Amino acid sequence: MKIITTINELQQTMKVHKKSQQTIGFVPTMGFLHEGHLKLMQEARSQNEIMIISIFVNPLQFGENEDFDSYPRNMERDSQLAKEAGADYIFAPSVNEMYKDEPSVTVKVEKRTDVLCGKSRAGHFDGVATVLTKLFNLVGPDRAYFGMKDAQQVAVVSGLISDFHFPVELVPIQTVREEDGLAKSSRNVYLSAEERKQAPHLYKALQTGREMMLKGEKSAETVIESVTSYLSAHTDGVIDYVEIYSYPELKALAELKGEVILAIAVKFTKARLIDNITIDLNDKE
């Protein structure tokens, strides 16, 4: 495995593999790898001849008072995990390497961002789309792998690939969870012992909503009220949102039908946790 830190070396390296017509699987990350990332790498390794990951804490997707400076980083550990997962390359550029000058062109996401996390994080998905546009151009992957834990991001990336005609196949991977149901996340390390005990109730709340929908509940408002009540009763966190939309369009629904996403966000003392499930109500029978 080789660590690449410059754009020029990355472009030259990828050019060799493309000339040999080798398939390239790409896993973009912000590092501090956990089992969710390893699952993405496992899938990328099994489906492609070359597997590359990026480790880049992207400042453009952090807003004011968010944790860019304190975001956990451990390159030595990440390198070992990536090597064990079969990565051929890690692209780990500096901020200056990726954003040398004030940009003359920016990427702005127009849809699928005014709900869920995007509603309270103005500009976040513009930052995600900007860095992915750069990375897709630099790596030129055949397939790119994203976790459904951040289903809104997957929806935005789907739109980015479609609208800009990137020759990249988006491969969404189901959320990897702890044994008690808590979604794997780099931010879980910020939970206190008591908060860690409460955190699995996020997934249990989602399961409550799923059961209601599968049993025929058609009102989004009714499901949201039930999930909210469950979270309030079982956690001390502040509920940021409980929302239901069509997926991947992320449109409000007058009646629950088709494929939908039930998503939640809860703020604990030092960590804001998100989780979601997608449900195809066409298959409920």
* Biggest sheet statistics: 6 strands, parallel
The proportion of residues forming helix, as a percent range, comes to 25-40%
Overall pLDDT: 94
Strand content: 15-25%
Give the helix tally: 10
What order do the SSEs take from the amino end to the carboxyl end, as H and E? EHEHEHEHHHEHEHHHEEE
Spatially, the strands of the biggest sheet line up as: 1-4-3-2-5-6
The CATH homologous superfamily of the largest domain is named: HUPs
Structure classification:
alpha/beta
Straight-line distance between termini = 48 Å
CATH architecture of the largest domain: 3-Layer(aba) Sandwich
CATH fold assignment of the largest domain: Rossmann fold
* Count of DSSP strands: 9
Instruction: Supply the number of structural domains.
Output: 2
Walk me through the structure.
It is a single chain. With 285 residues, the chain is of the alpha/beta class. It has two domains: 172 residues, HUPs (Rossmann fold, 3-Layer(aba) Sandwich), CATH 3.40.50; 91 residues, Pantoate--beta-alanine Ligase, Chain: A,domain 2 (2-Layer Sandwich). Helices cover 38% and strands 19% of the residues. It contains ten helices and nine strands. It has a six-stranded parallel beta sheet with strand order 1-4-3-2-5-6, with helices on both faces. Helix 9 runs antiparallel to helix 10. It starts with a strand and ends in a 5-residue tail after the last strand. This is Pantoate--beta-alanine ligase. Keywords: Ligase.
Short description:
The protein is of the alpha/beta class and 285 residues long. It is built from 10 helices and 9 strands. The protein folds into 2 domains: 2-173, Rossmann fold; 186-276, Pantoate-beta-alanine ligase, C-terminal domain (Pantoate--beta-alanine Ligase, Chain: A,domain 2), CATH 3.30.1300.
